[in-house]
Amino acid sequence: MSGIDLDEFGDLVERPDAGVRRESRERWGRVVRPEGALGKPAELADWLCGVQGRVPARPIERARVLVFAADHGVAALGVSARQAGTASELVRDVIEGRAPVSVLARQYGAQVRLIDMALDCDPAELPADVTAHRVRRGSGRLDIEDALTAAEAERAFRTGMALADEEADSGTDLVLLGDLSVGGTTPAGVLIAALCGTDASVVTGRGSGVDDLAWMRKCAAIRDGLRRARPVLGDQLALLAAVGGADFAAMTGFLLQAAVRKLPVVLDGVVSAACALVAQRIAFRAPDWWLAGHASGEPGQAKALDRTSLDPLLDHAVHSGGGTGALLALPLLQAAAALSAELPDLDPEPKPEPEPEPDSGDSALEPDPHPAP
């Protein structure tokens, strides 16, 4: 039995300040003409004001990309274009600065933090700070066995919570949440289909670029995973253990604790969207603290975002993973914050006129200019 009381998140997660957001929206009428001239950036600035609890918004100065990495046992079924157990190669590309997310992070001034949750490699092959939180080596094949034990799922979930606290305490003002995995879009599909009550074919996408035969194998794996997911739908930790993985459990814990700590998060692709959907089941107010960075083209992501009422900021057909799509949205958010922070009021509110000084009564002593005869 889990030692985590998930029901507490429902009480701990508060909505961003609606009054502050309304104040920001009203302020645009005094900042720019015509009304609505700044469109989406102004809307994003309103959201930033709400999550920051102030008007105008603070500039985004300490953005961090958090990338959770893992290998998934279901990849052995041939559901990915990559060979099973090779996610560590993707991680090395990020470490060595060769990955798209590395290039964009340098361009936009964001830091990248890699977290190995369940890579299928010798931990000595990677830096110690990357492997420090590993829960296990790879995950179980979700079509025939649990991806994690109950204890592993709880440990991964708590790791995500602890990382959210670390980021909030260190002054991070925006998190861009990504993942690196081989086989990860398959458990994402299972979770989304289970929580949305839909069929496997509706959420099965091309992931890493699979052909038709691999797509059919993937669809079958999601269908088999659904049979194992449905009996535990009421227990989100048990669901993550059965058909998720250590990265999914950690990202879900991170999203919830980030909402508790009022730390805004930008989601990346279908994996983070699936975790957001699980987190929403635990704390329905939590999505108010998140944005969807982009549309990846995965049908499961579209389904999850629709259910969480999140609209993607961008749609550039990016599906490279690792937080790349979320990071592409960072300049738009930085622009929104800068516009809110630096544009002056065109029509400042008029200052009240000073009240007249009270009559001292001295006028009674002044001589009458027209005395009576």
Question: Would you mind describing this structure in some detail?
Answer:
By secondary structure, this protein is of the alpha/beta class. The chain has one domain: Rossmann fold (3-Layer(aba) Sandwich), CATH 3.40.50.10210. 47% of the residues lie in helices and 10% in strands. It is built from 16 helices and 6 strands. Strand 5, helix 14 and strand 6 form a beta-alpha-beta unit. It is elongated. The chain starts with 6 loop residues before the first helix and ends in a 31-residue tail after the last helix. The mean pLDDT is 93.
Q: What is the structural class?
A: alpha/beta
Give the overall pLDDT as a whole number. 93
β-strand percent reads 5-15%
- Name of the CATH homologous superfamily: Nicotinate-nucleotide-dimethylbenzimidazole phosphoribosyltransferase (CobT), large domain
Q: Judging by the overall fold, what is the CATH architecture?
A: 3-Layer(aba) Sandwich
Total domains? 1
Keywords for this entry:
373 residues, alpha/beta, Rossmann fold, six-stranded parallel sheet, 16 helices, 47% helix, elongated
Would you kindly provide a brief summary of this structure?
The chain is built from 16 helices and 6 strands. With 373 residues, it is of the alpha/beta class.
Lay out the secondary structure.
Elements: H1 7-12, H2 18-31, H3 39-52, E1 63-71, H4 87-95, H5 100-108, E2 111-118, H6 128-131, H7 150-170, E3 174-182, H8 185-196, H9 200-203, H10 212-229, H11 236-243, H12 246-260, E4 265-267, H13 270-282, E5 290-294, H14 299-307, E6 312-314, H15 324-328, H16 330-342
Parallel strand pairs: 1-2, 1-3, 3-4, 4-5, 5-6
Helix pairs in contact: 2-3, 3-16, 7-11, 7-12, 8-10, 8-13, 8-14, 12-13, 13-14
